[in-house]
């Protein structure tokens, strides 16, 4: 740390010797070439001393560096982190271009009181920063601080104290310019805010007057309330708090008004939307928003600043949710084409963007000022136009109705005579048609009875029925369609279109429709359709033409039949056939080889019994034992595999010591290891326990070790290791054998594409063992995978649940 300070001191001395040589450094800002007629932000790193008010911070051992323009909350200062409360000293050395000018500093608002010094001379004091948490006094004063300096290098020192606000420190960017320039800029901004305030207040009062004229239009009342709150927020927020230039407001009430105007504006705005579009806003959501807004406002009113300012983050998230809900409401409104919906959407879109921007700016994600005033003016103007157009439309309708009423009053007698004559003529015509209607009524009754039967059959069938006109435009679907796919007619048309050519899922649908139209005959085809819930449904469709009495095409009828169960049966049948063929193949071919070996060995022993030495006899016996073991294991695999195909395997998982289980399994292969002179390297901790079925898991290990022996050349190594992996035990069996190609790796565990190859000494295999391993591992809630490279060997990894601790 001391070496770093020495380096900083050397750089500071160089900076003094060569003005302009070092543009910006921590705690120093070179403005030698800056034009004072422009505005400059002091956004470099400042010296910062936490917990103290000091001068010459750069000479102290416990100084740090910090940026202005955001609060000191959560800033790392050594081994600790700054909280909201406490004292702090900001200090910066400035290199100025001219000593004859009067400069101005614009700090905006600071949380919560401060004293500003230039070269140790006090030039501005806001509130009382010197005191304890009980005696210090917070205050907002955004006036420009001015100073002159006889030296081009000046030291800016700011002593800040905060014990009330949820954020502390110099949270606004500090700007420097000529004092007159800054004063003019600040005054223009305040004047602009007051101009907006006046305009919005006039608009607000105008709509209050409209409500008094027409009490039914409550949208004008809530527009008045909302704009009134928003207008006052302009005066009690932002960088300058313009209201404080006009009259004195206590700091605590300034903060309360700032928060209240925000907290009240959200429920008032949603209430305004609900009155404007009452059918599109859910009353329960509206009630929830009103209650939440009222509770938040009550918290602001009755709790101290140090408490309620912490609630703003929650309320900002609540604001985001409300903005999202208003967009949902607007989506519904646009869908129903309500009058004024597009105007409202445009205004709200601009307002929402500015509100979101300002909330993110409060968390220092943006630093380009407040946009709320722009969005507010745009929205107020657009909604004033919308409300005015509604009033104009209402008055226009009233005027039209009034004119029609006057006309009716003047011409009522004539109209009555004309209507009476028309009614008499119509009565005669009805009498003439009454007999015709009576005759047709009996025929219709018979036809209706038949149609009801047909309608019930079409509606209640489990098949999906679609009826289109001759051009393929969909006109009707039955209830079976809704049950099968989950779509109503409207939902289907909205997603897939109104024509069978776009709604049909077969890629040949246009060709099929043309074939039906041309040949006047039905066609059958299969396709896969995505249902409303995302599931895939395999269907067989019969597309038929419906002809009129003149043999002209009038309708197309598509009947979809769910064939998922049929396809499942086909797959199961195919799987069953594959398993049966596999079993027959093994019985016919793979069992013959070991039995031939057994017969050959025994015949040779019988033929040469007297000639054999004891060593040769012992070798024959070893070979005979090895062949017998392999035949026995093959029979075991066949038995267990056939039981898995018939779901006759019972899995009884228990806690087993892995090392003991592996030792027991390896004991079966002592002769096999000796015959090929293979070395076993085992890394299995003694305290590992698995939770598995003993018989099936032993079968898995037996097959994996047998495969490793089979495919490992003489004098090589086989490696078996185990380790914990989360809730599982991972066992790896690695050989140094011939390896497996990537194409064959994919076939290892497949019943449909079985894979088997000879071992290093022409040992035969069936491919059954690995399929059995996969089945048993999965039944024990585990996984198995393989890694292999041709010429380098193969590793099988089995993950089995670890035994729970007793």
Q: What are the segments in which pLDDT stays under 50 over at least 5 consecutive residues?
A: 1-23
Helix residue percentage: 40-55%
Judging from the principal axes of the Cα atoms, what is the shape?
Answer: flat
Q: What is the residue-averaged pLDDT?
A: 80
* SS content category: alpha+beta
For the largest beta-sheet, the strand count, sense and barrel status come to: 8 strands, mixed
Distance between the termini: 53 Å
Rg calculated over all Cα atoms? 45 Å
The DSSP helix count reads: 21
Strand content: 15-25%
Protein described:
The protein is α+β, with helices and mostly antiparallel strands. It has 21 helices and 26 strands. The strands form 6 sheets. Strands 1, 2, 4, 5, 8, 10, 11 and 13 form an 8-stranded mixed β-sheet that branches. The protein has a 5-stranded antiparallel β-sheet with strand order 16-15-19-18-17. Strand 10 and strand 11 form a beta hairpin. Helix 3 (218-235) packs antiparallel against helix 4 (251-276), helix 4 (251-276) runs antiparallel to helix 5 (283-302) and helix 15 (592-607) packs antiparallel against helix 16. The two termini are 53 Å apart.
